[in-house]
Design brief:
With 239 residues, the chain is α/β, with parallel strands linked by helices. Helix content is 52%, strand content 15%. It has two domains: 2-7 and 90-237, Nucleotidyltransferase, domain 5; 17-80, no CATH class. The chain has helices at 17-32, 36-47, 62-72, 78-81, 106-119, 130-144, 148-155, 163-166, 172-176, 187-193, 207-212, 216-237, and strands at 2-12, 85-93, 98-102, 122-127, 158-161. It has a five-stranded mixed sheet, with helices on both faces. Helix 5 runs parallel beside helix 7 (148-155). The protein is globular.
Length: 239
Amino acid sequence: MKTFSFDIETIPGIVPEEIINYRKTSVISRMRKGTVKEKALLKALQDKDVVLLEIADKVRIEVIEEYHEKLTQVSVGNALDKRFCETIAFSFHNGDESFSFVNTSEQLILENLIDHMLNKDIRRLVTWNGERFDLPVIKFRSIIHKKLGLVKAFENKEHKDIFWTFNNPYSRMDEKIGFGENGWINLHQACLLLNIPHNLHVKDKNMAKLVEIDDLETIKAICESDAVATWELWNRTSI
């Protein structure tokens, strides 16, 4: 059986108002308890009314999260978003073969994903940040769509998240370099570090906008590029 890299693409779903309010309160509370930089940022956001954001429509709380994460390198409220992200694409890659699927029907996405997980010769999945994003999304969306067989299929596969190869707060080396701005990198930065081609050609990665204009080919290309990059990183760093 084979090892495949795996990646999904999502768009934000509609988040209940009580969740939005909780997120606002939680992020603001963390900022108030934070550093001088964070407090200054909070004041700037409040002066522009960005904290309020008026986000009863599509989830826009990531604006606050992005600012907060840049300062602290800690993602806030990880467990909340994943219930509401709608999966629109997935991609597998192992150097010799690739298979991808993109569709605006999440039901079809999950059905095709089940088919691939059960009928392809997959022993191990390699992801970038899969433990914190891809797999939780699959779990929550499978529950919502009553596709619990998909959860079981993922449980039966080995999994390696190479995000932790580059970002490990528990390693002595990361501890020495501060594990903050000095050590934390994303997928694209890891590719730049090892001179691995990534999706630089894609200028607009706003998935919701791409869905709106029916540009599914670009979504597929982004997903495939991430899966290929993850595979290359795994090959370069696996022992």
